[in-house]
Amino acid sequence: MRIIAGEMRGRQLKAVEGLHTRPTSDKVKGAIFSVLGDKVLNSRVLDLFAGTGNLAIEALSRGSSEVVLVEKNYDAYQVIRKNLEQVGVSQKSKLLLMDAFKFIHRYPDEVFNLIFLDPPYRQELIPKVLQSLKEYSYLSADGVIIAETAKDEKLTDDLYPFEIRKTAEYGDTKIWYLQRMDV
């Protein structure tokens, strides 16, 4: 696993041993950031279910100003900490060892331009997270939520005030891009 573009391009990242995490592939990561384009520049990024920190670190490499990474698995948290230190971005990062839902309810005044949601597949976590995010103003007016699911998963719950703006499939992965309806 490596950083694929930006100032840290080519730098290798550590992965978590075992099956607790499923890092986003370079192909999918490249496609996500291609869609986001300049939205990454100077953005404030939230990476819930951060895993290895792969997506947040890629965002920093491409010009994001700050990232907040939330991970509840201790082994994954340690890998993220090492990855942040290894590529020298600890000062632009806030890493929290906690459950994603606790973070949402504990920090209700946070606002982000980009929110990455890459939880374990087939556990219906993304609809639950979106429901929790609705209670607060986490997403900036022109911000984007990028959700990663298994290809056969659906986001069927009432998403208001968010709406699906784009989807894309890559192998067994589906990426959902959501924004506020009033944008």
Automatic annotation (TrEMBL):
It is an enzyme of class 2 (transferase). SUPFAM superfamilies: S-adenosyl-L-methionine-dependent methyltransferases. Keywords: Methyltransferase, Transferase. GO terms for molecular function: 16S rRNA (guanine(966)-N(2))-methyltransferase activity. It holds the Pfam family Cons_hypoth95. Its EC number is 2.1.1.171. It comes from the Bacteria. This is 16S rRNA (Guanine(966)-N(2))-methyltransferase RsmD. It comes from Desulfosporosinus nitroreducens. The lineage of its organism: Bacteria, Bacillati, Bacillota, Clostridia, Eubacteriales. The gene is rsmD.
